């Protein structure tokens, strides 16, 4: 896996994108393997006192004693499958980041989505590096500055890798909006390095 290169015409500081981090065949093979073999969960969260099932499936993979939760619920922690552990090792070496956790999201079609948020939890550090690998259907990622009207959009291709680092989480939010006409699924791998063993996200 090569180091991603930024496209300054598309992305703000702290975001860099490589469209072909994985070959088309490797991306396809990995997509089907993960779709069929990961232990998918669909947590229920509380928003303004009401319970909602999140609009996507998830699997949390991490080193021992690293836990994951948000909005009062926790995901079951899964061990590293060999194929994802090998990817984690390559990314850690390339980026010089000791990744120890991986959140995997399965968007079953264009109705599944992710709202505006920043990955700015204390456990990830002041300037976290997050490596996001996309498999399957292309989806549009939106990025907006927290304090002005600056917005960016990028199409995340299958086999691509988006790196978010520096002050990307402090200064920006990102989202994956619905694409109602899209019928095909997408899997997103987000590799993270957690300084603490108890991770509480708020999504």
Please name the defining characteristics of this protein:
Jelly Rolls, 4-stranded antiparallel beta sheet, 16% helix
What's a concise summary of this model?
This protein is of the alpha+beta class and 203 residues long. The chain contains 3 helices and 16 strands. 16% of the residues lie in helices and 38% in strands.
Task: Report what the structure shows.
The structure is a single chain. With 203 residues, this protein is an alpha+beta fold. It has one domain (15-201): Jelly Rolls, CATH 2.60.120. It contains three helices and 16 strands. The protein has helices at 24-37, 82-95, 168-171; strands spanning 15-18, 44-47, 50-53, 57-62, 67-70, 73-75, 77-78, 101-107, 114-117, 130-136, 139-145, 151-156, 161-164, 172-176, 186-192, 198-201. The protein has a seven-stranded mixed beta sheet. The longest helix is centred in the N-terminal third of the chain and has 14 residues, at 24-37. The chain is globular, with a radius of gyration of 16 Å.
């Amino acid at each position: 896996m090569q180091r991603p290169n930024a496209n300054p015409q598309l992305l703000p500081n702290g975001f860099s994108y490589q469209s072909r981090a994985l070959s088309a065949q490797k991306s396809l093979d990995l997509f089907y393997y993960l779709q069929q073999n990961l232990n998918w969960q669909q947590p229920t969260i509380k928003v303004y006192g009401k319970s909602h099932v999140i609009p996507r499936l998830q699997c949390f993979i991490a080193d021992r004693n690293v836990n994951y939760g948000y909005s009062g619920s926790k995901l079951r922690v899964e061990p590293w499958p060999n194929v994802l552990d090998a990817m984690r090792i390559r990314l850690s070496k390339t980026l010089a980041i000791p990744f120890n956790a991986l959140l995997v999201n399965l968007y079953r079609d264009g109705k599944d989505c992710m709202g505006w948020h920043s990955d700015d939890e204390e456990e990830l550090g002041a300037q976290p590096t997050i490596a996001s690998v996309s498999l399957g259907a292309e989806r549009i990622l939106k990025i907006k500055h927290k304090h002005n009207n600056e917005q960016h959009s990028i199409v995340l291709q299958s086999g691509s890798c988006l790196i978010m680092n520096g002050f990307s989480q402090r200064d920006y939010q990102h989202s994956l909006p619905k694409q109602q006409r899209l019928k095909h699924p997408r899997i997103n791998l987000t590799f993270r390095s957690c300084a603490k063993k108890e991770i509480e996200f708020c999504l």
